[in-house]
Amino acid sequence: MKNLQILVETMTRCGGNCSGCALSSVERMMSSFDLDNFILKTKQVKQMLDTHNPNEVESATIFLGQGDHFLIEEKVIDQFMFYVSKMIPEDLKRKTVVFITASAIGKHEQIV
Fold this sequence. Notes:
Number of strands: 3
């Protein structure tokens, strides 16, 4: 049985929200999130997952990491979550865990 682990890099930088961070408040508000690129990546992940026989897969773990979702504009977070939900084939959903960085805290309603 296979255990698939996939890391999807959502951004190229962090949000600078740690205490003691040297980034200025202006830098913290700059978004490097590219929705079009993210959509392309989620489609590539789905195509890869579609090539596996679900009976051969014990579990799939998807990490949406290296990016601070505080930097995703509010109007984009719904689209972000929509494409996350479409990334996993139906027959693997019950075997999949998706990890979203802790920065998604505060956007609970949109994530649900």
